[in-house]
Amino acid sequence: MIKARIVGTGSYVPKKVVTNHDIEKLVDTSDEWIMERTGIKERRVAERGQTTSDLAYEASHKALKAAGIAPGDLDLILVATTTPDTIMPSLGCVLQEKLRAKKAAAFDVYAACSGFIYGLSVANAFIKSDTYTNILLVGAETLSRFVDWEDRTTCVLFGDGAGAVVIQRHAGKRGILSAHLHSDGALGNLLYVPAGGALHPPTHDTIHKRMHYIKMKGNETFKVAVRALEDVVQEALEHNKVKPEEIDLLVPHQANMRIIQAMAKRLNMPLEKVVITIEKYGNTSAASIPMALDEAVRAGRIKDHDLLLLEAFGGGLTWASALVRW
Ligand code: UT7
């Protein structure tokens, strides 16, 4: 049976650390509030001039090295991002040039925080249809450029970073077992950036009204997220006829520690079986799962044949789950 298998991982975060205490100086908030409501202690922020493609490049380089292949071997580059360097060209194309991956086709997957699992599903389909053999999938974001540093309801949440995986065609039982994707455009107004697209192109007025920044109805998003994630995880378990106790490691999107804990409780999993990076990095959107995955790999937390459950929820709204036999 042909499977799409992750054969190398890598991640990268900017060096600059912004702590909750640093943010206390910008808006009316406190370390206690942020820790208690989100589990975030600090986040990384890109330096001036450092772009999403720079972070993606570093993570990709490490993933390629771990996989033991060269950029020239890649057939396809997929980048999950909502914060590309430019609207055009795509971040995929910018990264292709930086890597000098001349043979690879490249494009972006645009599904906010669920983007990495959406990308995993696209990679899986290309491998199963025998279209490509070596795929680089990257989740990369510089959300610090799109948060309103005067809005305490959002600026405390997000961070910058990138994670990458190399996915290859393999015969056997190891690899992506399933990916389930969902969207609900009717709830798009819970988490969005009002301007900068064709609806409201940039004008002095859109800038004056701070319309180029992320807006979120946090509490409503939270409630939808918990319900939707429970459903999509259940879908993955039923589809694969897997019981929660068979899962070796949960690799969740890192949006809120309370959402992660709710999922672990629902699956009756101790937190030792959950990869948690939110305290250090905050919510890095599409980058959070591949960053967490790489951290777990490098810490020796994943053994061959382990069963991994991935889940994510984000703007769109979008949500998704995947089961992976490592
Ligand atoms: O990754 C994409 C998907 N994103 C998510 O899934 C995020 C989901 N949402 C959340 O994580 C949480 O809803 C938040 C962390 C964003 C907010 O936590 P909450 O417990 O839902 O708080 P809330 O929005 O209901 O706000 C409670 C209070 C409000 O004050 P009042 O109206 O009760 O007086 C807020 O104004 O907390 C206030 N507040 C803050 N206080 C101090 C909001 N942000 C802050 C802040 N510091 N940074």
SSE layout:
Layout: E1 2-12, E2 17-19, H1 20-24, H2 31-38, E3 42-44, H3 52-67, E4 76-80, H4 91-99, E5 105-109, H5 115-128, E6 134-142, H6 152-155, E7 160-171, E8 175-183, E9 191-192, H7 204-208, E10 215-216, H8 218-240, E11 249-252, H9 257-266, H10 278-281, H11 288-298, E12 307-314, E13 318-325
Parallel strand pairs: 4-5, 4-6, 11-12
Antiparallel strand pairs: 1-7, 2-3, 6-7, 8-13, 9-10, 12-13
Helix pairs in contact: 3-4, 8-9
The chain binds oxa(dethia)-CoA.
The site of oxa(dethia)-CoA has 20 residues, from helix 2, helix 6, helix 8 and strand 12.
Structure in words:
The protein has 326 residues and is of the alpha/beta class. The protein folds into two domains: 2-172, Peroxisomal Thiolase, Chain A, domain 1 (3-Layer(aba) Sandwich); 177-325, Peroxisomal Thiolase, Chain A, domain 1 (3-Layer(aba) Sandwich). The chain contains eleven helices and 13 strands. The strands form four sheets. It has a five-stranded mixed β-sheet with strand order 1-7-6-4-5, with helices on both faces. Strands 8-13-12-11 form a four-stranded mixed β-sheet, with helices on both faces. α3 crosses α4 (91-99) and α8 (218-240) runs parallel beside α9. The longest helix has 23 residues, at 218-240. The chain is globular. Oxa(dethia)-CoA is lined by residues 29, 33-34, 37-38, 113, 152-153, 156, 218-219, 221-222, 225, 255-256, 259, 283, 313-314.
